[in-house]
Amino acid sequence: MKLPLLTLVIFLGGLACARSQRLFELASLYSDLFAKYDNEQLPVEDLSETLFVNASATIKSINQFDEHTGQLEVTMVITLMWTESRMTWNPANYGGIKDVLIAVSDVWHPRFQIQESVTTMQEIGDASHQVRLSKSGEMSWIFGNVLQVFCSVDVTFFPFDKQTCTVSFSSEPYLAREVSIGLSDPTMPTDSFKDNSMWELESGYMLARSNHAFSAFDMMFNLKRRSEFYVIYIIVPLVILGILNSCVFIMPRSSGERHSVAVTMFLAFILYMNVINSTVPQSSSPLAYIYYYILFLILHSSMTMFLCIVSMRVYDCEGPVPDKIQTAILTLRCRICKLICRRGNVEPEKGNSHTDGIELPEKGIYEEEKVAVENDKDAVTWTHVGKTFDNVCLLGLLLFFIIYSAVTFLRLYHNVEFW
Predict the structure, then answer these.
(1) Could you tell me the end-to-end alpha-carbon distance of the chain, in angstroms, rounded to an integer?
(2) Does the pLDDT at position 78 exceed 90?
(3) Above 50 in pLDDT, residue 72?
(4) Per-residue pLDDT tens for 178-195?
């Protein structure tokens, strides 16, 4: 019983000694690394040399995107890597230690400022973070940041609009000849990205640039609005109201409700303009094309009300119908077409040699047709004129509305300029 207990005590004592030895070697390593270290100087052996910093980023989520103010808030994980030539060691001299964690505030680290910060110039990273240092002097700083930036919003193709937001990082106060930015991976992985209910992240990438004074890199976010809500809430009701607005001419004139329905539709379009106005950012340049569509609907509804008034006046007319109007009504009602079809032949020109041998219709047939046309004209009343006018207005307004709506929404969906 005493032998196993003695063995356990020796084993635990050995572990404690080994741990104490490792802590001693780690403390010795820290002491040697910072013996003559100055965290205010660039980590280069020659001041004429340029320090290269590699950057990469991963986007985690889009927390908020307010189109009215243009404020974008995203959560990012950023990785910065550079070489600290003054902090290298041989692992054999320090118990095999190959890398250590060091407080960022204790070493030199790159400082990048966000140019599109909403309030003050925001600097990425925090002094409380830690950086991993390898035996060869390679520094790896991985940290998370919530970026609050301003993004210019283009709502031209609302609700099928796409936004491109650019976040610029500048290496001020270091000059381009002192610190150069490189990209270890231009693309931003989205494997761990959490979907946003209003915006879809199509792609994200990074771009290194130099403005001859300072080195910088940009993060580009391509966002696409999720349009399902707006299609159901705005577009579908507008299309249904537009079709119903054209169908007022189907209602019988005796009901007396045509004008009331037309006015109700007009007011509904005005109401939807207020709804869209509270949803779309107010901007004159560019102006959302959906506003032009609402304007079209208002003009379309106004034309419908005007034609309803004209139709009422036509039904109330008295007296004979003028010959020209009668001819137009018969043409639109395809009565003349039916008469021409009943002829079966056309009277040839006299002296035309190629008609020889063709049996001509009897003269009486033309007289009968003339009488039929005259009888049809006598049968045309203002009621016929009103009904024909209603049918023409119905087909014309409905066809024009469908074509204009189809062209408008196809261009909006594919983000094609109207002019």
Answers:
(1) 95
(2) yes
(3) yes
(4) 888 888 888 888 888 999
Tokens representing 100? 């250590």
Instruction: Provide the pLDDT for residue 239.
Output: 94
The owner of tokens 């995203």 is 74
What token pair was written down for 348? 């040839």
Evaluated on CA atoms 195, 196, 198, 201, the torsion sign reads negative
Report yes or no on whether pTM surpasses 0.85.
no
Give every strand in the sheet of 130-134, ordered side by side.
99-103, 130-134, 138-150, 71-83, 51-66, 179-183
CB 329 within 8 A of CB 388: yes
